[in-house]
C-alpha cells in the first residue's frame, strides 16, 4: 500500500472578489508533500505560489474576500471543511509558516523569548516557566549563539538573519508536521542565506517534517529541494524531481526561466535568454494555454485549447501540448554539439 | 565582443572618465536624547574608497546590504554630501561644484533606482514624468520634448500610448524601463544604476539586463552598476569592485575576479551563490557569524572577525589595497 | 515615426483611458452611501445659501413688533423671533454668513497650512520653528483662542474669518507636514534631485500634488469645525455681531426665550447639525475614496 502523503491538495481553486469582479488566483492546483520531504514551489510574482500556501492555512477572509474550492487534506482531514476553531488549532500547531520579512512578522514591543513562549502556550498545556525553557531550547536548535541571553532581547536588536532564525524557532516550537516557508531568504544576503538554507535542511532531517519551500530562486531550489512544482498564472505547469527539472525541463516556461538567470559560471559574451512580454493579468487570462502569449513554440493548438497536466517518465508532469517535440529537438541540438 | 574589449583595454591607458579618490562618508549617530545628547559616534558608511570609471565600460560594485555600495553611488551624485574625497570628472571635482553647477552636471551623470514602484510620481502620467528632466535642463520646446519622449519610449521598448498611462497601470518591469528612460532622455554620459534589477522577476530581470547592454552600445554609456547579486554583476560588468563594511576589499577584471578571487570575503561571496544544478554539491566557504555593527567596526582588517584565515596581524593593521597583478588589486594581509 | 498619425492614436487612447478611469471612480463613488448622503446634504445647503435669499419673501432685518415670537404658521413657516423678524428668512440669510465663514476659513487654512506644512517637511530648521509655533497654538482650546482673538480684533464677520483661520491653520499644517514627510522619502523625489531639479520644482511640482488628497479631507473637517466654532463664538456674543443673522447668534437670541419659543433654538440647531454631519460624512467618504487600504477588496 502506498504511504499516505502528509499533505494532499486536490484541484484547489482560490477566488477573490474584487472591484472588477471575481478573479481566480489559484486555478486547479494539485500536488502533495510527503513526510520528510522538501517540496519547492517556484514561480514569479503573481503566479499564485504565495496564495496557494496561504490557502493551505486558510488565511484569507472567507466572508468578504476569498472563496476556496477543492480539497486540502492533511493526513486525510480536509482542512477546507473544518470549522474556524478547528482551523485555529491547526495553524501553528500542525502547520507552521515563515515569511519573507522577519521584521514585520515579529512584534517590536515584546522580547523574542516572550513571543516564542506565547506560541507554545497557545497550543500546548504547559506552565509559563516550561514554555520559556522551551523557547531557549528552540533558539539553541536554530543555531542562535547564547540563547539564554537572546531570549531577553527585542526584535530590533537582532540582525535580519537572526530574526529569521527566531521566526523559524517560533514555527518549530509546536513541532509542526508541515512547515511552509514563503521566500524565507529573499530579504537576506547570500552569505546569510547560505546559513539559513543549511539550517532548514538540517531541521528537516532532524524532525522528519514536510517542508513547502516557496521561492523564485532556482539556485535555492537546486540546493535544498527534493521535488519541484513550477507555477505560472495560477496553475502548475510542471512537476518533477529536482534533477529532472534541471536536466530535462519539459515545459517551455521552466526552460525559459532557467535560461534567463545569469549564472556565475555562464557564458558572459552571450545575451541572456529572454521570455518575451509580461504575465497576463488575472482578469485577462488567455483562452488556450496560459503561457501561449509568451511561448516561442506556441501554435494554433496552444492558442485554442487548454493543455492538461500530462505525466511523462519518472513521474515528471508538464502542462504543454508540445513537450515531447521540444524535448526531442533539444536532444538533437545537444547531439550536434557533441 | 572581443574587439570591443580590446578597445576598452586600450582606453584604460587614457585618463578615466570618472576618478573617485579616497571617498569617505561618515554619518554622525546621535545619542538617545537627539541633539541634546551630543554625538554618540560615527558610522563609517564609506571609508576611503577609490576607483575609476573608463569610458564605455561597466564597473560593477558588489557587496552585501550595509556595505556602503549604495551610499557610494549617491555620494557621487551628491544626493548625500561626502565627508571627504574627490570625484574628478572632466578635470573638475564634482564635490567642489556649487549647487547650481552641480545641478547642471547632473545632465551628464544620471541615476537609475532600485524600487520601480516608488521611483515614479504616482500623480504624474508617464509622459509628464519623462518630460520633466527636459524641462529642468531646458532642452527644446514643448513640441520637441514630446517627440523626444516618444523616441525614448520606443528605445526602452515601450509603446507610445504609454505616454498617457499612470505608473500604477504598469508592471514592475515596465516601470523600470520608464526609470531608465527618464535617466537617458537628457543624453547622459554616465549612468549610476543602484540595484536596477533586484526588485524584478526573473524573466523580467533578463529583459532589463539585455536592454541595459543594448542601450550602452547604442548610446555610448558608461555604467556604475551597483548590486548585491554577484551573478548579475558578473554578467554585465567589465570590472568588479567588492565592498565590505564601507571598504573596497578587492577589484579586478570580471573573469579574473570570479575565477581567481584573492580576498577571503570575495571567495565566500562567490561560494555562497546557490547554483541551479542539483547534482553539483559544492564545498562552501561558510562565513561565521554576522556583519559587525558599522558603529563599532573591528580594528585592523574589518573582515577579520569572520575571516577563516585571520591572523594576528589582521586584528592590528589595516590592510592597504595593492596590485597583485595587472588590473587586480586586493586589500588583504595574506598576500603581503 | 509618423507624428501626426501617432498623435491621433494617442488622443483616442487617452479618451478611452479617461473614460475607463471615470467609470471606475464613479462606481466607487456611488458605492459609498454615507458619503453620497453627506455630499447631497452639503449640495442642498449650498443651493439654499446661494438661491434661498431670492426665494424668501420676508426681509430678515424687518422688525414687526406685533408679530413677535409667533409659532410656525403659513405666513411665517418657521415662526418669528422676539423682534418679529421672519425666522426662515433669517436662517437662510444666516446660512450665507455661516457657510461663508466656514468656506473661507477652510480655503485660507488650506492655503496657509499647505505652505507651512510643505516647507516644514522639507527644511529641518524651519520644521523646528514652525511646528513649535503650531504646537503652541494648538495647546490653547479653539474657542478660548477664538474669543481672545475676537476681543483683540473687534467683532465683525471678516475678523471671525481671520480668527478662525489662525485657530485652524496649525491643524492643516500638521496633516500636510506628516503627509509631505512620507512623500519626501519616496524615491521619485530623490530621482528629481538626481535630475538636478530646483527646490521649488520639487516642493510644488512633486510634493504638493501628493498631499492634495489628505488636504481635501482635512479641509472638509475644518469647514465643519469652523461652522461649529463660529456658532459657538456667536452664541457667546463674540462672533458675528447683531443685527446680521448667523446660525450662532439666532441660537443666542433663542436662548433667552427657549421656554416660550422652541422654534428659535430647534431650527438653527438642525441646520448646524445637518451641515456639520454632512461635511463629516463627506470627509470620511473622501478619506475612504483616496486611501487604497480601506477600499480595495483585492490583495
TrEMBL record, chain A:
SMART domains membership: AAA
GO-annotated molecular function: ATP binding; ATP hydrolysis activity
Subcellular location: Cell membrane
Residues in ABC transporter domain copies: 7-258
GO BP terms: peptide transport
CDD domains the record matches: ABC_NikE_OppD_transporters
Gene Ontology cellular-component annotations: plasma membrane
A Pfam family per the record: ABC_tran
Tree of life domain: Bacteria
Bilayer disposition of the protein: Peripheral membrane protein
Keywords attached to this entry: ATP-binding, Cell membrane, Membrane, Nucleotide-binding, Transport
InterPro entries named in the record: AAA+_ATPase, ABC_Ni/Peptide_Import, ABC_transporter-like_ATP-bd, ABC_transporter-like_CS, Oligopep_ABC_C, P-loop_NTPase
Primary site of residence: membrane
Keyword tRNA-binding (UniProt): no
PANTHER family noted in UniProt: DIPEPTIDE TRANSPORT ATP-BINDING PROTEIN DPPD, OLIGOPEPTIDE TRANSPORT ATP-BINDING PROTEIN APPD
Family stated for the protein in its record: Belongs to the ABC transporter superfamily.
Protein name: Peptide/nickel transport system ATP-binding protein
Native source organism of the sequence: Pseudogracilibacillus auburnensis
Taxonomic classification: Bacteria, Bacillati, Bacillota, Bacilli, Bacillales
Automatic annotation (TrEMBL), chain B:
The entry's keywords: ATP-binding, Nucleotide-binding, Transport
Keyword Acetylation assigned: no
Domain ABC transporter: 18-270
SMART domains registered for this protein in UniProt: AAA
Superkingdom of this protein's organism: Bacteria
CDD domains membership: ABC_NikE_OppD_transporters (cd03257)
PROSITE patterns: ABC_TRANSPORTER_1 (PS00211), ABC_TRANSPORTER_2 (PS50893)
One GO biological process term: transmembrane transport
GO MF annotation list: ATP binding; ATP hydrolysis activity
PANTHER family named in the record: ABC TRANSPORTER, ATP-BINDING PROTEIN (PTHR43776:SF8), TRANSPORT ATP-BINDING PROTEIN (PTHR43776)
Family: Belongs to the ABC transporter superfamily.
Official protein name in the record: Peptide/nickel transport system ATP-binding protein/oligopeptide transport system ATP-binding protein
UniProtKB/TrEMBL annotation, chain C:
Entry's localization field: Cell membrane
Keywords, ordered alphabetically: Cell membrane, Membrane, Transmembrane, Transmembrane helix, Transport
Membrane topology summary: Multi-pass membrane protein
PROSITE patterns: ABC_TM1
Gene Ontology biological process terms, A to Z: transmembrane transport
Keyword Cell membrane: yes
InterPro entries: BP-dependent_transpt_permease (IPR050366), MetI-like (IPR000515), MetI-like_sf (IPR035906), OppC_N (IPR025966)
One Pfam family this sequence matches: OppC_N
Family, similarity comment: Belongs to the binding-protein-dependent transport system permease family.
Gene3D superfamilies associated with the record: MetI-like (1.10.3720.10)
Organism: Pseudogracilibacillus auburnensis
Protein name: Peptide/nickel transport system permease protein
The keyword Transport appears for this protein: yes
Residue stretches spanning the membrane: 34-56, 97-121, 133-154, 160-183, 261-282
